[in-house]
Amino acid sequence: MSNVIVHPDAASAAAAVAASVAQVIRDARRQDRKAVLGLATGLTPLPFYRELVRLHREQGLSFADVITFNLDEYEGLAGSHPQSYRRYMDEHLFSQVDIPASATHVPDGTAADPEQACRDIEDAIRRAGGVDLQILGIGRTGHIGFNEPPSLRESRTRRVVLDETTRRDNSVFFGNIESVPRAALTMGIATILDARRIELLAFGRGKAEIVRRARQEKPGPDCPATWLQDHGACTFHLDPESASGSAI
Ligand code: GLP
Questions:
Q1: What's the number of domains the chain is made of?
Q2: What's the mean pLDDT when you consider all of the chain?
Q3: Residues lining ligand 1, Cβ inside 6 A
Q4: What is the pLDDT of residue 52?
Q5: Helices (H), the chain
Q6: Which of 169, 174, 185, 239 to mutate to test the pocket of ligand 1 (most atoms within 8 A of CB)?
Q7: Would you call 27 helix, strand, or coil by DSSP?
Q8: Across residues 136-158, what is the average pLDDT?
Q9: Is residue 247 part of a domain?
């Protein structure tokens, strides 16, 4: 069963998770190795990235020895596309801190051979020594990354077709649903569960029901976030609204 912390608000949750990241970075430096972070996109992690940038500017938190792997990317979107996750990461984190561009990995939505691109991501994570800390959001379909239902516990980085609910939810970024890509590349469930620690962020009443399902339903492919119950070091960081669906 995953742990859960109900914070007074999203900003406090974001600050707590950013503090965990800072600790992971400092611990790795003490051990003379690079910290490996798994990163997420969407509206939810925005206050978390703002806090990381603040820690960099005001407290000297350095990302010079950090390697990052993002969960997912829309198929067909080049990194220069305003709605690509590469662009999101450049804008909200990478351009604001001292991380070398070569240490940042976001799946290439325009890869000529997507299967090979997915295998390359798995290899790169392995070569980096595995993910120390994976940040997650959760979609209303129960997706983590873009692992839509049904997603198997054994799934690895791959191409997935997006659920219509997800396309509708993400149409706020694109202006209309027709412009939202129909497919994506995503780390798999097994890839995510390989991380040594997982911190999931979910805020607002709109996430209450899926958070309840993720924590209370028996793990299975129909609500992929339920697989997190299999992880020994996974914490859900909630605000009072997202926590309101379950007796926590
Ligand atoms: C997106 C991303 C996920 C994210 C989720 C929730 O589509 N692929 O990684 O966690 O859906 O997004 P939001 O935080 O905007 O609600």
A1: 1
A2: 97
A3: 40-44, 71-72, 137-139, 145-146, 166, 170
A4: 98
A5: 10-30, 46-59, 85-92, 114-127, 164-174, 189-193, 208-216
A6: 169
A7: helix
A8: 97
A9: no
Q: Which of 92, 138, 147 to mutate to test the pocket of ligand 1 (most atoms within 8 A of CB)?
A: 138
How far does residue 97's CA lie from ligand 1's centre (Å)?
Answer: 23
CB-CB contact of 107 with 158 (8 Å): no
pTM: 0.97
In a domain, 75, yes or no: yes
Distance CA 211, CA 111 (A): 33
Domain that holds residue 75: 3-238
Nearest CA to ligand 1 atom 6: 139
Q: Give the nearest ligand 1 atom to 72 CA.
A: 8
Residue of 41, 43, 163 with the most ligand 1 atoms within 8 Å of its CB, for mutation: 41
248 within domain boundaries? no
Give the CATH number, domain containing residue 43: 3.40.50.1360
Within-domain flag for 245: no
Q: What's the confidence (pLDDT) of residue 245?
A: 87
Residue 100 DSSP class: -
**Contact yes or no for 146/137 (Cβ under 8 A):** no
